[in-house]
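Hey, resending since the last one bounced:
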Amino acid sequence: MSQAGIVNTVLFPPPTVVAQALHEWLISGELPSDLAASLARVPVGFLLGSIRPHLSSTAR
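The structure tokens again:
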């Protein structure tokens, strides 16, 4: 669809471009460290998102 001009290729690149980028990411060795950094952010975001509603409800 992106190659046909139906959607913006910046927002939705063709699968071939995505596959090529993933391949380069794997070859460069950056994937494990980038994935670890992203996965480390998940519990922090969940924790902050869980605590905030409790703080605002007790402030009333």
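The helical segments are 15-28, 31-58.

Sorry for the duplicate.
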